[in-house]
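Lesson 9: reading folded outputs for more than one chain in a single document. The general rule is that every protein is listed as its sequence immediately followed by its structure tokens, and records are never interleaved. Here is the first one.
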Amino acid sequence: MVNRVGGLASGMDIDSLVEKLMKAERAPLYKLQQQKTIYEWQRDAYRGINAKLKTFSDYTFDNMILSSNFVNKNSTVSGVNSSKVSVKAGTGAAGSLDIQSIKQLATNASTGVSDINQTSHRYAKGTDSLSLLKDSEGNPITGGTINLNITTKDADGVETTVPKTITINSNESIDSFVDQLKAAGLTDSKYDTTTGKFTIGGANVSYSFADSASEEKLKTFGFSPSTISQSIKLADGKTNASKTTLLSDLGISAGNLELKVGNDPKSIVIDSDETIQSLLDKLNATGNDIKASFNEKTGQLSITSTDAKKSVTAADDDSYTILNKLGIQKTATTSSPHIIANQPGDSPLKPTGSNVLGHLGLEDGALTLNVIQANGEMKETTFSYSKFDTIDSFIKRLNSSGAGVTALFSNGQITMTANNSGKANDASVTSEIQVVGDANSSGKQLLEKLGFLTQTEASTSGNVDLATRGQNAIYAVNGLVMESKSNSVNISGYEIKLNGTFNESNIDENNSIVGTPTNGIGISSTNDIDSMVDKIKEFVSKYNELIGGLNNQLKETRYRAYAPLTAEQRAEMSESEQKLWDEKAMSGLLRSDSILRNGLSDMRNALGGRVNGLGDQVIDTLAEMGITTSSSYNDGGKLVIDETKLRKALAEDPDRVVNTLTQDGKKNSVTGEDTRGLLRRVRDSITDFTREIERKAGRSTMTDNQFTLGKSLISTDDRITKLQARLQDVEARYWRQFTAMEKAINKANQQSSMFMQG
């Protein structure tokens, strides 16, 4: 580190002097940095060419070599029954077809339309007696009491907890039970007759169970209690407790806190004069399998098991009360739906999509269907359902289950159809839609309620047929009787859709032709020359665009006076000036480049050759189909098309034209014979071209040491690093010299001052 002394003694601007000296010293560094920039520009220019080559190569493959995109055919359908079919000629369409008869079309197995049973159950009403409701085990709800701790919060945030008892009389109505909840302070409590669910709550009101018996009692109403952790409040009802709060201040007396971790009992001895912190220590003691924590900010205590699969609960009512006082409480919000059997005076109703399966008298179950698949094989699919699924949601799940059926429901009626047409391959199968199960199968009970099965069928063991048989299409073509599972068939490259039947009597029950069919449907095809001409013209246009761009880069002027700008030079220029300078500096980076010249030459040679192996007196060059190289030298090998000659070649021998352009083939390295199509040769030459560029400029996934320009960049970076280190030493030397000069001048000035004073 050099102690720099600025020109106080000499009066010289040392900073400016050193800066000017270093500017001269940095000239070699600037040249290296500019050379690095040129390498980077060249790399990017090469990679830009590779991107264009890939785009052109992909286009050639997708639009020309893939015959399905290049070769288009027009189909011709004739005859008085031509409306009975729809025809599309594929690229492989060949010859002519005579469809002499369509005896029958392929059909899908279908159940037909069934009436769903009228509802035997419904959601309970507010006027229904509680005794009609059932608990989770199907037992009627009985009388009893529910003890609740109801907490309200006023505008100042003060909480007040009051115990309330709800008395249950099983003969009272649902509305009467809800009124009791509202009278206790849970003013938003309700029973929703559209969903069959209870909801308990109120604005700025919360509640918890006072004892385990009350929790269990409310479970019979379909509630699922959950544990909550409330803030522990002191006597003022507003201030949160802290870790130093005494348990006695929370109304907790000495005794035992009896807990269960899963099913394992745990007993904690409590002293009334101990704090929340000391209780935490006991709960977290080794071997308790309990994790306890207290949040000072919220005043909430948490007690959980170290085993996430186990829960911590109170083992007796005294412990239940202690946990309540510690803010660990049980509550519930919404019950499960309540479905009851229709009562005397109720009229069974036609079901709607919003009715649940339970309204039909069904419980949870599973349905297994055996259905025909696209390959003609039968496949079993099982999926479960709930009594709380609506008919609409059940239909949706059935259709998306993968079973292979489509069910529809409307106005109380339902139908089911196989997704795949035709008969099953297995001759022993008697229906393409079957339900699987024994006599007590829940799936069969479901289908009985949905109207697909009778009671007798539902009580049958084994597979039961649900649908009328599907049938295969049967038709005669060129004297042959054919059969297919679908009405869409492919014959000799023609994609044919059978739309209707005719001459049915000309095919007997043994699927043999009888009599002499008349009024058949004639099908033939011709090449779509207009489409092929357009494709070739488009290819030539893109080829000319590609080589035109490459030729421009080979001829681009190199402005050697415009070196890449240094950071200092950029700082002195406006943005527009920098842009103009960069355009000049980047011009001609690939001028006369040998890789580009050789690549272009290979592409021209690939298109200019002859395709061997096609025979004599055939079209096997571009020139013979009317595509030649421009006679203008300035065009750089662009192609021109004689459209009249091209159309004539396509009309006379379209297959030869296609083969000349696209056939696979190979090149014999010994004899030189090349049977590759011209477009495949171009793609192969582009592949070689691309590899040469990658050897020079790499690709984005390569490291710099894998290609030539990258290695040059690494070498240049090393030289820049070494030169920068040397320049630091040079700058330090200059400062040492000027500092020594300043010190000498300063010393001389001091001596002169002493002499003048003497």
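And here is the second record, again sequence then tokens.
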Amino acid sequence: MEILAPAGTYEAFEAAIRSGADAVYAGGNLFGARAYAGNFDEETMIRAIREAHLYGRKLYLTVNTLIKEREMKERLYSFLKPFYENGLDAVLVQDLGALAFIREQFPDLAIHASTQMSVAGALGAGFLKQYGVERVVPARELSLAEIRKMKEETGLEIECFVQGALCYSYSGQCLFSSMLGGRSGNRGQCAQPCRLKYQAEGQKKPSCILSLKDIMALEDLPDLIEAGVDSFKIEGRMKKPEYVSETVRVYRKYTDLYLKKGRAGYQVSEEDKQRLMDLYNRGGSCRGYYHVQNGPEMLTPDRSNHAGIHSACVERQKGRSLLAKALVPLQKGDVLEISPKENVTLGQDVKKGGQFQLLVAKGTTVRPRTILARVRNERLIQEIQERIRTAEVRRPVQAKAMFCMDEPSKLILKSGSFSVRVEGSSPQAAKKQAVDRARVERQLRKMGNTPFQIESLEMEMEDGIFIPMQVVNELRRTAAERLEEEILKQYKRSCKRVPMVEQEEIQGESLISREGQKNVLSVLVETKNQLRVAARSEDVRRIYVESHLAAAMCSNQEEREEIQRLYEESKIPWYIVLPHIFRERAKRLLDSRWKAICEVPWKGALVRNVESLAYLQKKKAGKTRFVRTIICIH
């Protein structure tokens, strides 16, 4: 099982590697869905790729925004080329055009379908498999049964979110940020308007009615593993290294626990849950959509930022002084939230149940029995920082050294299938005191800042010889450097020369008016009344009919006769519009009315996702009068 960690900064990348992540995903300075994360410049990304490989880990690059035609031609190739040449393991992609471009220009680079692609079923996953996608990150709204079916029917690698933020909308489908402020989530610039407060009809005051709690799927790891999930993904490229480190540690711990002991020995401790909640939570956590479809328990209406954990209860206030009782052990440096605008840092340790005083700002009033949340656990943060600083991450190496009179000194280092052999100066007969065997061994084991650790050392040393420690040290340094080169060499690739690209814009059928041409009015209809008006309007030149309306109007003979009559009256092209999200319910509805739907002489179909396109292919719609044109939009 792969534990996949986020890295918005290089410090977070190092924290993930040192805490047990098998792979890390990060963004560069272009095309990433988290444009406001730290992200990596070219030099830093190459450094991360090399470091990941030296420790036997992987690095995935996010290229998961929609990409404009000009960007594809002018920037995508040059952006990816240095990472590809240095062994980048995979790219996460949303844009189908980018997928085709990368497959053509970088044929050895694994492509993962980002959750931004909104893959909602086995149909869509199977479609992407035809075009070289090796892994799918399904829409986060899918159930465990849908994920299992996707794995069984396609055999693709499946990567699922287990920890971190959830969006109110399907990823890749939300236009909220773009509509409100011109910052498009599909261009990596989401302003998170769903985290703000709104007032709905009937509400007395505004609340965060669109903000979801973070997912914490520790309890569901056995189900996900048995469903065929290959990678557990932690969300959080905007999070700090401490958060990344602890989430990786916890998910590594419980994944290994299940793999070792199975369901019978699987139990999640409350302490580990509490540690994760202490680091970040939005008013609690939820288990995502794996076992539920929707529900108010997934929302966090009171607030959308870190809520901390309940830590103290106010007993009384006198002036600016609060007397409170600790609900959990508190430490010096902990931060308690008095109000959304006021925090207080503790100056002493307090045992659970102990009383303590807090000094609040002038004018602040806190009622008795008010619960205060701890929004920073200082001891936990320091513990994680110390673990990151002192963690030993080394690649095990087997070594063999040979020191014989008048023969070159030799050192062989092996790591897995990689092996290097170096030679140095020859030992000489000792004039006074022979070299100490134990000292030579100690020097050879000092791997210093290299990524290696001597796991076993076999040494052949002739008696009565002398060799300077400088020679031993140089032998070790040279061997370690060459082993690094040998390991990284396997990841090196070369790019074919990028072809010259025509600068003209792609030409195609367009409804945009040109000089001397009349404006064309197209209408998308969702109700029967809308269809009647559009069909009888002299100004409308094209009608798009939502599939649920088409299915409803094909439910009986009377409805079918009306839709046929309207079509004949309109004398203009009709297009059937498949759903924004195409899951099993949509498929069952269309299947049940498919024959009747096909009786309408549609000019074509408009599809909004790969599932719909795959569905039409499966129905061989393009080979019948049903569909002669397929228009794809996002």
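What the second record shows: The two ends are 33 Å apart (CA to CA).
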